[in-house]
Amino acid sequence: MNWSEEGAPEEEMLEVEVSEQASDQTLDQGLYQGDCGELSLDARRVLVQLLAGPSLDGQRHSKLWPILIRDEMAIRSRLSELFLQLVIDRDLQVAFTRQAETGDLEVPRLLRRANLTFLDSILLLHLRQRLTQAEAHGDRAVVSTDEIVEFLGVYEQAGNTDRALFEKRIHASIEKIKKHSILRKIRSSEDRFEISPTLKLLFSAEEIQALTRIYHDMRAAEASSEQDDEMQSGEDHE
């Protein structure tokens, strides 16, 4: 009787040890043949989305967002090994990666830099300001293609005789911004877009003010030059 009572716990302990060994073997096998990763399947999906870019947000990636928050430190660690930094805004539910600031340390760059034209930059500033205005009133930041064309039309160079070419450049800028998911098409609408809150993280308020002053000065200088040309033309006619 006493032997039986003492033997039972030993059997249970043996079963637990065997179960733990089986669990370890399952982990060693990984998710697929040759897999030596440590992240869960869901966490890997989050990592892939961040690397594929341009962003991960709670609206479009509702299943991935809670995984990102849960496994944030593990995902940050993996990104750091690639010299990348994870940027998260929990209020906006937006996250993306950017190249880490490594100082004098020379490191390879994984992320490609997007070359912006003058119109691209102006458009981004305009969308950033629209986003700020909409948030201040508690509205969605929505813009249409016609509104963008009208706004950028102010920056058409004086003496331009090819309006069609200029509008083609405007539409090319719109497509570039759409490609980076900063403009997201609204369902049931062909030419209306919602501005992604990601743009708020890409440009700080200070950067927006500095760039806006630069472009305003450029526009003022161009307008002054146009006025001088008109005056000179008038004098020539006299």
Structure description:
The chain has 238 residues and is mainly alpha-helical. The chain is built from nine helices and six strands; from the N terminus they run ααβααββαβααββαα. The protein has helices at 2-29, 41-52, 65-70, 72-80, 118-136, 145-152, 163-179, 198-202, 205-237; strands spanning 56-57, 84-89, 94-99, 142-144, 183-185, 192-195. The strands form two sheets. The protein has a three-stranded antiparallel beta sheet with strand order 1-3-2. A hairpin with a 4-residue loop joins strand 2 (84-89) and strand 3 (94-99). Helix 5 crosses helix 7 (163-179), helix 5 packs across helix 9 and helix 6 (145-152) packs across helix 7.
Sheet with most strands = 3 strands, antiparallel
Shape: elongated
Q: What is the beta-strand fraction? A: 5-15%
Output the structural class.
Answer: mainly alpha
End-to-end CA span? 126 Å
